[in-house]
Fold Core-2/I-branching enzyme.
Amino acid sequence: MKKEFAWPQFTKNLLIMVGSRHRSNLKRPTWIIVLVFIVCFFLLAAYIYPPRSSASTCSLFNSQGCSVGGVGRTFNKPPPVQTREFTDKETESRVVINEILKYYAVQSTVPKVAFMFLTPGTLPFEKLWHTFFQGHEGKFSVYVHASKEKPIHVSPYFVGRDIHSEPVTWGRISMVEAERRLLANALLDPDNQHFVLLSDSCIPVRRFDFVYNYLLLTSVSFIDSYVDTGPHGNGRYVERMLPEVEKKDFRKGSQWFSMKRQHALIIMADSLYFNKFKHHCRPNMEGNRNCYSDEHYLPTFFNMLDPGGIANWSVTYVDWSEGKWHPRSFRARDITYKLMKKIAYIDESPHYTSDAKRTVVIQPCELNGSKRSCYLFARKFYPETQDKLIHFFSNSTTF
Ligand SMILES: *[C@@H]1O[C@H](CO)[C@@H](O)[C@H](O)[C@H]1NC(C)=O
Ligand SMILES: *[C@@H]1O[C@H](CO)[C@@H](O)[C@H](O)[C@H]1NC(C)=O
Ligand SMILES: *[C@@H]1O[C@H](CO)[C@@H](O)[C@H](O)[C@H]1NC(C)=O
């Protein structure tokens, strides 16, 4: 057997590729010319595209994952190594959540806003909401979760919109379960692109068009999320939530959210974090501790999994400034043009902490570097305020 050993295997393959079909016709001098030509071409290319000093691998031969002048971004970097090893469930959960967030694309031609009402029974402000919705058919849908008794509806927009409901106890996980039930029902309609949770004491403070554009022309969800270092914030954290939920990630926030479709979907996909809160964040825990999942699950979940995707404030106004256990409730005599205008034009959101000094952190309502008014809805209002509110909405162009 004749042993052929002229060129190393790699070079031989290269020559075969270059020589292509007409290899057999080429004579040795032609080969040399071709080789010299290739070498010249590479030298010329290296001269025209010199390697950059800060990113030496970013050259003609490595355009993939190469950013112009990018320091340290020359290769497609592998994800950073975790300081803590993820549990199996955690890895699975992250994969599903990240894929939903990455591949989600808006598909409807006329997107709708889903208004989801969480109420014990009949909605006292149905007439006001009717005025709000009138003339905007096709741009909204209504869902009602009545946890105590079947509501009596006066507006055609609400008739037939009750979903299956279960009893809800304040501060218990059943509250979060009702929120999930509303989201699941509203997700059945593919045109629903933004989901707003409202209570029976909520009112709109802006006109429909303003609300619609505000919600649909932004890419974020309005989920309240902040650090409360006091006893009613971090004081509610229990180490049993480890390893998945660490104290540094624990957040607090108002339950009245408004969210994008992809965020509603990841809540449907989540059982890991939901169960952590279901079992370890509840009232009457050991040591007289009270934890309320409706104030911690979503603020913590989004802070951990898509912090840049949420605005960190709620679009539902509430007045905690009196410093009492419950927020201020507005009566008919409180309702003035001045008050309604004040609420509608607030552009900073306060976060009250429960530490000994009752620190208030006031932050501008800012997205993409531009300030905006914070609120579209408000609570808590007594039913007696309805007629005055309808009067304001019908007769003023301010809102
Ligand atoms: C910020 O600006 C970008 C680009 O203009 C836009 O795509 C995005 O939706 C904006 N974000 C918000 C929250 O409005
Ligand atoms: C919300 O807060 C998180 C965590 O503090 C931050 O990463 C994120 O950028 C904030 N969102 C906006 C829109 O500023
Ligand atoms: C608007 O204002 C006029 C005059 O004050 C009043 O007569 C009318 O009832 C108001 N409209 C509503 C819907 O309240």
Summary: The two ends are 94 Å apart (CA to CA).
